């Protein structure tokens, strides 16, 4: 068992350095967005989150998700925003990433917005549990299976709910999905199954070969992803050095991504399979996400300027 139970940007040229511990593949092209550029944020007001519900046709009942709207959302009704999905791990819930004793994501988001490392974004924390609910004895099944079509519920249905309720940028280059532990695997598995909705995937302490078999093991089936989609993909991986199984999983997956020439980053930090580790390194993954959002926005702005000439 290899999982543990457990719009306005500055229109100047953007350069950034990805400090990786493994080689990355070629930089992928981005598909321009037709939406307006994102605003830069110099000062951030206090953030908040709330839990919302929706009727899931896919899961046959009411489902919940957490949402944190970006600063200035209510004051800028013509503004559309990027979206980040954060998946919980084993025996988890949509509030885990926001809890003070766990993810403390609002603190990280305030810091990233204030420093401009992450453009103001809509943060969504889905419920990753299947019809059986959460249990300390099993991890979420982030795939379509006998206990519910969780992958479709998150990767398609919830995406449409979010688009209908909030002002989102439609281009998948402005949509990211990530998570921790089994949620790290889930984010990659769901994201790869829904590349029309997500171009950016990230995993903290995840694994990429699932016990359910090759159909839900990204390291196995990613080679079958269409070439055009491979070029759009941007993937971030990190793992704590004492998390030996996940270190190997991430290294193996990174090697497969390199072989397929898929743009990615893998970082190994000190630490283990703990909330302290995930709290500390959420800023790293979201900084990577922010860099991809900025790159996509620059491409969009450049194309729009060419069209105006």
TrEMBL record:
InterPro entries: AB_hydrolase_fold, Esterase-like, Mycobacterial_A85_antigen
Xref: Gene3D superfamilies: alpha/beta hydrolase
Domain of life assignment: Bacteria
Signal peptide: 1-25
Keywords annotated in UniProt: Signal
Pfam families: Esterase
Protein name as it appears in the record: Esterase family protein
Organism: Anabaena azotica FACHB-119
Lineage summary: Bacteria, Bacillati, Cyanobacteriota, Cyanophyceae, Nostocales
């Amino acid at each position: 068992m290899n999982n543990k139970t457990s719009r306005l940007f500055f229109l100047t040229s953007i350069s950034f350095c990805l400090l990786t511990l493994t080689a990355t593949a070629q930089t992928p092209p981005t598909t321009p967005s037709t939406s307006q550029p994102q605003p830069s944020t110099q000062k951030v007001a206090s953030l908040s989150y709330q839990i919302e519900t929706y009727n899931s046709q896919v899961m046959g009942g009411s489902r919940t998700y957490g949402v944190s709207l970006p600063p200035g959302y209510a004051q800028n009704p013509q503004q559309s925003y990027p979206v980040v999905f954060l998946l919980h791990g084993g025996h988890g819930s949509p509030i885990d990433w926001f809890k003070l004793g766990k993810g403390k994501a609002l603190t990280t988001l305030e810091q990233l917005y204030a420093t401009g490392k992450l453009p103001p974004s809509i943060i969504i924390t889905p419920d990753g549990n299947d019809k059986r609910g959460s249990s300390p004895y099993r991890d979420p099944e982030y795939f379509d299976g006998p206990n519910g079509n969780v992958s479709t519920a998150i990767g398609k249905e919830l995406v449409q709910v979010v688009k209908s309720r909030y002002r989102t940028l439609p281009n998948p280059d402005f949509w990211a999905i990530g998570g921790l532990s089994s949620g790290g695997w889930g984010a990659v598995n769901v994201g790869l199954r829904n590349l029309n909705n997500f171009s950016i995937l990230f995993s903290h302490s995840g694994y990429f070969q699932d016990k359910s078999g090759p159909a839900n093991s990204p390291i196995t089936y990613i080679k079958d992803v269409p070439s055009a989609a491979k070029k759009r993909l941007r993937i971030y991986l990190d793992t704590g050095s004492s998390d030996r199984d996940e270190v190997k999983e991430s290294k193996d997956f990174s090697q497969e991504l390199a072989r397929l020439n898929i743009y990615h980053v893998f970082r190994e930090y000190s630490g283990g399979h703990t909330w302290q580790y995930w709290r500390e390194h959420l800023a790293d993954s979201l900084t990577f996400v922010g860099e991809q959002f900025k790159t996509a926005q620059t491409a969009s702005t450049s194309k729009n300027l060419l069209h105006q000439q």
